Amino acid sequence: MDSALTDGCVQMNSRDTERLIEALSSNWQAETRGYHTYNALSQQETDPQRRRTLRNLALAEQHHAGLWASRLTQLGAPVPEYDGSEAGDAGSLANRIGGQELALRRLELEESRDIARYGKQIEELGDESSMTILKEVIADEADHYLTLGGLIRHHLPTTPLEPELAQQALDELVAAREQGQPKAASWIGDAIYGVNDGLGAIFGIVSGVSGATLGNAHFVLIAGLAGMIASALSMGSGAYLAAKSEREIYEAEFARERDAVEYNEAEARELLSLTFQVRGLSAEDADHFVGHIAEKKEQLVEALARERLHMTDQSLSDPWVSAISGATSTAIGAFIPVIPFFFMAGIPAIIVAAIISLIAHFSVGAAKSLITIRSWWSSGLEMTLVGAIEGAVTYALGVGLGKL
Q1: 253 and 313 in contact (C-beta within 8 Å)?
Q2: Among positive and negative, which fits the CA dihedral 323, 327, 328, 333?
C-alpha cells in the first residue's frame, strides 16, 4: 500500500491511505444508513406521491453507497459491514415522538451537514477518483435537501426517475410485496403435474392388473415398472417439446415484430398506442408513453411482442428444466403404488398399495395449494377422492377382464 495508488490517485503514503479508507468506509456507512432510513419512512408513508419520492431518495442513497463500495474495492479495502438498524434513523425515539414531519426536518438538517462534510473531504482526501465521486454525491445531496424541503412544505417534486432506478424500484417493490408469499415457479407446476400423472396412471395399472391376477406380484411389478418408465419418458419428452415450442413461437413472433418495426415503425407505434388506449389511457397519454418506449427500438419490439403473445422472454420455461422435473416427478409418483409388491403379494399387497397410493394422492393434492389459492385439505381430499374412484373402477375392470 506504500506504492502509488491507481485510478488517478496521487502518491499517497500508508497513513494517508488508511485515512482515505477510513473516510470512505464512513461515507459508505452514512449512505447505507440513509438508504434504510428513507426506505423505512417510505413504507410508513400513506400518500402515494410522497411514498414514491421517499423511495427515490432511498435508491439514490443506495447508489451513493455503491460508488463508495466500488472505490474501496479499487483500493484493495473490504466493504464494511453495515452497523446500523434496518430502519436506519427512522425508528429513533425522537423521530417516533415527533412523527414523520419531524423526521424529515431532521433529515433535511442531516443532508446539509453531509454536504458540508463532503465539501471538506474534497479539500482533505487528495484522491482524484474519490473527489469525482464526492462531486457527484454533493450535487445529489443538494437535490435531496431541496426535495426534503418540498416534502416538509408539501411541494412535491415532479422529476421522474431514470429508467435504471425506476426498474430497481419496481424490482424491490415487487420483492417486498411477494416476501413471504408462495410463488408458482414453472418447474414446480411441472413437478406436481408429473407426480399426479404418474401416480394416477400407475395406480390404475396396478389396480387393474391386481384385480385380474389377484395380486400376483410378478405381473404387477412388470406392468407397473414398464408403465412407470413409459409414463416418465412420455411426460419428460412432452414437457420438453411443449416448452421448446412455446419458446420457438415467441422467438418467431419477436422476429416478425422486429421486421414490422423496421419496415414501418410509425404503424407499429400506432398499433401499440391503440392497445394502450383500449386499456383506458387517453390518446395523448398513450402516444406519449409509446414515444418513451420507442426511444430504443428493441424496447418497442419487446412491447409489441408482449402485447401480442401476453408473455415475455423471462416468463418462458426452460425446456430441459421442464423435461427433467416432469420426467423425474412422474417416475416418483408412478413408483409409489408399486412399492408394496416388492415385499408382498395377493390381497395384502393390494390393500397396502391402495392405502399408500391414497395417502400419496392426498399429499400431492395438498402440495398443489402451494401454487393455488385453495386450502390444502380441500385440494388433498379432492385428489384422494379422484384416486379412490380411479382405483375402484380399474380394479373392477381388472377383475372382469381376469374372469374373461
Answers
A1: no
A2: positive
Alpha carbon 253 to chain centroid, angstroms: 25
CA 127 from chain centre, in angstroms, equals 39
What pLDDT, on the 0 to 100 scale, is given for residue 342? 92
pLDDT digits (tens, 9 = 90+) for 339-366: 999 998 888 888 888 899 889 888 887 8
HEC assignment per residue over 5-72: CCCCECCCCHHHHHHHHHHHHHHHHHHHHHHHHHHHHHHHCCCHHHHHHHHHHHHHHHHHHHHHHHHH
8 A C-beta contact, residue 313 and residue 333: no
Helix (H/G/I), strand (E/B), else coil: 253: helix
**pLDDT of 192 above 50:** yes
Residue with cell 426498474: 167
Residue 9, beta-bridge partner list: 127
Q: Which residues contact 20 (CB under 8 A, 6 or more apart)?
A: 12, 75, 125, 126, 127, 130
Residue 141 confidence (pLDDT) above 90: no
**Roughly how many angstroms between the first and final C-alpha of the chain, as a whole number?**
91
pTM of this structure: 0.49
Tell which residue, 11, 42, 34, has the closest CA to residue 115: 34
Q: Does residue 336 contact residue 391 with C-beta atoms inside 8 Å?
A: no
Q: Is 286 helix (H, G, I), strand (E, B) or coil?
A: helix
CB atoms within 10 A of CB 369: 16
Q: pLDDT higher for 58 or 167?
A: 58
95 sits in which H/E element: helix 93-124
Q: CA distances (Å), 186 to each of 239, 307, 326, 329, 370, in order?
A: 11, 21, 11, 14, 12
Q: Are 68 and 136 in contact (CB under 8 A)?
A: no
Instruction: Count Cβ atoms below 10 Å from residue 353 Cβ, excluding itself.
Output: 25
Max alpha carbon distance in the chain (Å)?
100
